[in-house]
Amino acid sequence: MKARIVTLPGDGVGPEVTAAAVAVLDAVAAHYDHTFDYEQHLIGGCAIDATGEPLPADALAACKSADAVLLGAVGGPKWSDPSAPVRPEQGLLALRAALGVYANLRPLQVHPALTALSPLKDDKLRNVDVLFVRELTGGAYFGAKTRTVDTATDECKYTVVEVERVVRRAFELARGRRHKVTSVDKANVLETSRLWRSTVQRIAADYPDVKLEHQLVDSMAMLLLTQPASYDVVVTENLFGDILTDEAAALAGSLGLLPSASLGEGARGLYEPIHGSAPDIAGKGVANPVGAILSAAMLLRHSLGLEEEAGAVEAAVEHVLEHGPRSRDIGGDAGTAAIREAVVAALDEHVANSEAFFSGARACG
Ligand SMILES: NC(=O)C1=CN([C@@H]2O[C@H](COP(=O)(O)OP(=O)(O)OC[C@H]3O[C@@H](n4cnc5c(N)ncnc54)[C@H](O)[C@@H]3O)[C@@H](O)[C@H]2O)C=CC1
Ligand SMILES: CC(C)CC(=O)C(=O)O
Ligand SMILES: [Mg+2]
Where along the chain is Mg(2+) bound (predicted)? Predict the structure, then answer.
């Protein structure tokens, strides 16, 4: 197949991990005879420096006409002055809104070889397989903001339509998994959460085969650390989902491991690791590219419909996590480039083994 992918490496470690993900996509293209055409654009701090805008018009136009968008991360201390008129994160928020990618899928699995890095003991980590579905284009990140000398406000607003579409997505996804949805809110205090909860209750009636439970976000933050294996699909609003998924990353062993897919109504999606620009390690060549590489796998699956290829990338990552090399955040000393090369080599081997398996099966059959 032929696909057009816009890359937005962004700031900090963004370019380092995006380059690794592109190298893996290139290996997929070579093995499976696909053509991926890339178009790279600016977003975030680097875009502000070059154009004054965190999301230049040409970058947005390219994303809107692409088959998929692969993003690194935005932001960093250089652009963090609270009085700055524009900030890198505004570019990312504007992109998510413009693409209409309201459902942010953030899968959490704990690789058996990495359990020692988790704050939990092995028995609590067995069978942890959670899919967070975070609402991505509403809530406090998008509400009106005000600021005077001594007061600031961030409006948190949700409409029924915004809640309904992401909750339906969560229920649909649960049907392909273990048929359970946990909806997280703060309905004991927040009006937006009361609207969220009543909408979830109404939608649930259309999915009698899916078990629904509600959980308040504060206790959910605790339960995630005490009984993570009891969750299947967790659906929640933008801010809560942002925070809970960084917490979840600690269970996996590092923020550098978790991928995400942001989806709307069509096939086009936005794919990015869940971490930020990691200014403390940027430019050193030590960032863990696994979250970005697994985001590329999600791109293959969700935007290009290439399930076998996505599975091959995931298998290659699994192999590298098990046998090494490992990056510093997960207890190794390998750099970003070494991990990238190891994943590409594991992918080569995976494809070669699959071909041998199928030709063997043909010979036998
Ligand atoms: N999607 C995005 O573009 C996001 C951007 N940000 C921005 O990133 C900047 C830094 O934010 P922080 O709060 O420090 O969060 P962060 O996610 O950038 O880093 C938190 C910690 O995790 C580590 N880490 C993150 N990614 C890693 C990787 N791939 N490999 C190894 N270690 C990794 C970092 O070194 C740091 O110690 C801020 O400007 C923030 O606004 C934050 C979150 C998401
Ligand atoms: C706007 C982003 C910086 C928010 C974030 O942390 C994320 O999406 O993970
Ligand atoms: Mg975040």
Answer: 218, 242, 246
